[in-house]
Amino acid sequence: MSILLSEDFTFIVQGITGREAVNLTKECLDYGSKIVGGVTPGRKGRDVHGVPVFDTVEQAVANHGSEIDGAVVTVPPAFTKDAVFEAIENGIKLIVIVTERIPRRDVAQMVELANLRGARIIGPNCLGIIVPGVAKMGGIGGPAKDAAKAYEPGSIGVMSRSGGMTTEISSTLTAAGLGVSTAVSIGGDAIIGSTYAELMPLFEADEQTEAIVIYTEPGGRMEAELVDWRTENDAKLPIVAFMAGKFMDDEEMQGMSFGHAGTIVEGAEDSATQKIARLQEAGIPVVERIDEIPDAVKDKLGAKV
Amino acid sequence: MAEAEQLEGMFIDVEVSDEIASDPELASKLEEVCPVDIYADDDGRVAVVRKNLDECVLCNLCVEAAPPGGVVVKKLYDGTELRRSR
Amino acid sequence: MRFYEFESRRIVERAGIPVTEYGFCKTASEAREAAERIGGSTVVKSQVLTGGRMKAGGVKFADSPEEAEAHAADILELEINDHLPVGVLVDPKAEVEQEYYAAVLWDGRAKRPMMLFSDMGGIDIEEVADQHPDHVGRGHLSNLHPIAEFRAKEVVAAAGGLTGRELTRATPVLARLAQLQRDYDMTLAEINPLARLSNGSFVALDAHMEMEGEAVGRHQKMLKEIGVELEEPRELYEPSEFERNVKAIDEADHRGVIQGKDHGFSGNLGLVIGAGGGSLTLTDAVRSQGGKPANYAEIGGNPSVAKSCGLAKEVLKKDGVEKIAVMMSIVSNTRVDIVARGVIKACVELGKDPAETIAVFRIPGAWEEEGAKILGKYGIEFKDRSTSMWEAAGEAVEKIR
After folding, report:
1. pLDDT of A44 higher than 70
2. How is domain C22-92 classified at the architecture level of CATH?
3. Is A250 on the interface with C (CB under 8 A)?
4. What is the mean pLDDT of chain A?
5. Do residues A85 and A116 lie in contact, with contact meaning Cβ atoms separated by under 8 Å?
6. CA distances from A51 to A48, A64, A299 (A)
7. How far apart are CA A297 and CA A303, in angstroms?
8. Minimal CA separation from C347 to chain B, in Å
C-alpha cells in the first residue's frame, strides 16, 4: 500500500494563491490527489483550479466536515512557522513544507510541536511525496504527465535530500522495471522534519516496499543515525545509497557551501569519504553512478531469495 | 573576445496584422496578457518589444486575445506558427 | 554570518555576560587611549576573520600605552592570510585563575540546541571531551519552552563536579549564552575561555559567534547597533569576477535562480548544470571520468532565456574554457527549451559555433520535445533520459580531450 499517502488522503495547500502553489495545485489535482481546500489569509471566497480558498485552516476543516489529513505549505519563510503551527493545532497530521530558507530555530520549533501532537513534517525545502499511480503531495515529478513517465508503481522506496534527484533516481528505477512504492523528497536543510531513520519504520511496515534507495550529500549526521537505527531495530529492508558531492572533500573546497543549506562540511565526520565508509561497513553499498542503482538493488533483492 | 551585440528574435518572431496594430483596446490587452512583456501599448498602437521576443513561453495568450490571424507567433527554429484558426 | 572578535564581544556584552574592559580601535592612537583607560598591561589583537593570528604576529602584549600604540600601528598594516584587519581589539592582560569552556550550538540529530560546559577551557574542546569526558557537561534545550536556568545549572554541575560559587557564577553565564543563541539564531555561540579571575568573577575572555545566514534579515537592528556593515561580504575568500558577475545576473532578474562558483576550480570544461543535487552529482561525474571542470554552477527554478544565457556566457568567458557541458537531472520546473535557447544564444553572441562549443546537452523533462527541435536546428544532439548523467558527463569529457 506504500507509506504516508493513500487514495483517500485529503490535504490543503497553505499559501495556495502564490505562483508556485497555483502550479503544484493543478499538478496534484491532475495526478488524482484530493486537495480539499486552500488557505491564504484575506482571500476567502476565491478558488484555485476549483479548490476553494479560505482565510484559516479552521474554516477549511469546517468546510470539509471532518479531519483533513495533510497540508502542503508554500508560505514565505517569515510566515511559515505560523502556518505550520496553525495546521498542527487544527489536527493536521502530515505536513509537507516546500518553503526554503527558513531559519533553523523556526524549523526546530515546528518539528518539536509536531512531535508533541503526533504529527509528522516532511521538509522543509523539499518537493514532497509521491505514491505512483495513487497521489502526489507537492511539486515532485512536475506535471501529472511527466510524473507518470518517471514514476511507475513498484517495490522500491526512495528517500532523497534533493528534489530533482528523487525524480532522476525514480526514473532510473522505472526504466529498469523496478518501479517505486513511495518516493519522499526529505529536504535539503540542516534540520528537517523526517530523516531516513525516522521514515524507515514506515517503509519496513509496508508490504509493497522490498528495498530502499537513498540519495545523500556531505553534511549532517543522517547516515550515522540510519546505521544506528538498523543496528538497534529488526531491519529487514536492504538499502542502496548514492552520495553526491564527493569533490567537496578536496582541500580547496573546505568550508564552502554547495547545493542545499545542510551541505556544509563542518568536520571530518561529515565528509563524503567518512559517510561512504560508514555506510559500506554497515552493509549499505554506495554506488558511484546513478545508473548503477538498479543493478545494485537487484543484487540485494536476489540475495534475499 | 569580441562580444557580438545582444541578438533579438533568434528563436521567435511575432507578426501583428495592420488592422489590429492600431486597435487601442487590443494594444492594452496584449500588453496585459503577455507574461514576458513582448507587447507594449504605444499610445494606442501595438508595439513589439523585440528584445523580449526570445523569452516567449508559447503560452498562446496573445494569439487568443486577438481576432483570428491578428497575431501570429513564429517558431523560427522549426518554421511552425501559433495562430488562431477560429 | 561570521563575526569579528570585537563584534562577538559586543554581542555577549549586550546579552548580560560579563566581559573585561576593552577597546575596539581603528587607529594606533585610539589604541593608546584604550590602553590608558584600561590601565596596566594589555594585549593588542588584529581583527581579521581568518585564523592564525598568533603565529602571524597579529597578537602582541604591551606593558604601556605607548607600546600598545606601537603594536597597533604594526598590526593594522599586517596582512594575515591575505586579510587586512578592520581594526584592533585592546584587552587587559587578565589575571586568570582558571579557564572554562561554554558553548551553545545546534545538535542536528536531536534537532535541539545543546549546551556544553567544561572546567577545562582554553584548549580544544573535542580533545577534552575525548580524553576527559567527566569534565564536560552537556544538555539539550527545548525549542518551545523558555530557557530555564536550572538546565544550564545541570550542565555546569556535570562538568568536573563544579559546585560552590563556581557553579552559581558560571550558571547564569551559560543560561544567558543559551538565550543569546536562541534570540539571535546563532549556529555557534562559544566562549573559550570563560575565565575566573582572582577576585572570583567570571568574564568572557574570547567569544566566537556565527549567525545563520537565513536569519540575518531579521536581526538588522542588533547588527546595526553593534556596528556590522551589512554590505561588506564575510566570505572565507574574495569572490572572483565570474562569481560576482553571475550573482549580479541572478539578482537582476527574478525568474529562476543561477549560481556559479569557481574557487578551487581551474579546468577547460565549463559546467552549465543543475540543480542542487544534480549539480553535485554531475561535477563528481565529470571529475571521476578525468574531466577538469572550470567551475561549479546551479540552475534552478524556472529561469528566463536571459538568465540561462547570462550564466552560459560567464562560463564561456572564463580563461581556459574551451567548451561547455549543459546537463541537468530530470527537470519538472525548469523548461528544457528555454535553457536551450539561452545556451545557444550565449554561444552565438560570443561569436562561437554552438555545435562546436556545447560538448553535450542532457536535460530531460519539461518541454523536452521543443528543446530538441531548437537544438536540432543548430546541429546539437539532444540527449534525453536514456543517456544517464554519468554517460553525459563522460561524453563531454571525451569531446574536449
Report:
1. yes
2. 2-Layer Sandwich (3.30)
3. yes
4. 94
5. no
6. 5, 12, 45
7. 10
8. 10
* C-alpha cell read off for B42: 504605444
- The alpha-carbon gap from C300 to the nearest alpha carbon of chain B, in Å, equals 17
Sign of CA dihedral C149, C152, C156, C161: positive
- Mark yes or no for CB contact C341/B58 under 8 Å: no
Within 13-52 of A, beta carbons closer than 8 Å to C belong to none
pTM comes to: 0.94
**Interface chains of chain B (3 or more CB pairs under 8 Å):** C
Omega before residue C92 within 30° of 0, cis: no
- Cβ separation A146–C366 shorter than 8 A: yes
Please give, rounded to a whole number of angstroms, the shortest distance from the CA of C388 to a CA of chain A: 6
Interchain contact A273–C (C-beta under 8 A): no
Q: Would you please indicate which residues of A are annotated as catalytic (active-site) residues? A: 260
Would the pLDDT of B75 be above 80? yes
Query: Best interface-test mutation with A: which of C330, C339, C397 has the largest number of A CBs within 10 A?
Result: C330
Chain C residue numbers touching A112 (CB-CB < 8 A):
111-112, 142-144
**CA dist., res. C322 & res. C269, Å (int):** 6
Whether the per-residue pLDDT at A96 is higher than 60: the answer is: yes
- Per-residue pLDDT tens over the stretch B23-41: 999 999 999 999 999 999 9
The interface predicted TM-score of the complex, written ipTM, equals 0.94
- Residue A103 clears pLDDT 80, i.e. is over it: yes
To test the contact with chain B by mutation, choose from C349, C352, C357, C368 the residue with the greatest count of B C-beta atoms within 10 A, namely C349
Q: What is the pLDDT of residue C181?
A: 98
Could you please state the CATH topology (level 3) that the domain comprising C241-400 is classified under: Rossmann fold (3.40.50)
Q: B with A: 3 or more CB pairs under 8 Å?
A: no
Interface size between A and C, measured as CB pairs under 8 A = 156
Alpha-carbon distance of A298 to A305, in angstroms, equals: 11
Element (H, E) at A300: helix A293-304
User: C-alpha cell of C242?
Assistant: 565570474
> Nearest to residue C275, comparing CAs of A193, A258, A155?
A258
Provide the H-helix boundaries in C253-358: 276-288, 305-317, 336-349, 354-357
CATH code: domain C96-225 is 3.30.470.20
pLDDT at B3 > cutoff 60: no
- Cα(C63)–Cα(C112) distance, integer angstroms: 45
| A10-304: CATH topology | Rossmann fold (3.40.50)
Reported as half-sphere exposure (CB side, CA atoms, 13 A), residue C165 has a value of: 6
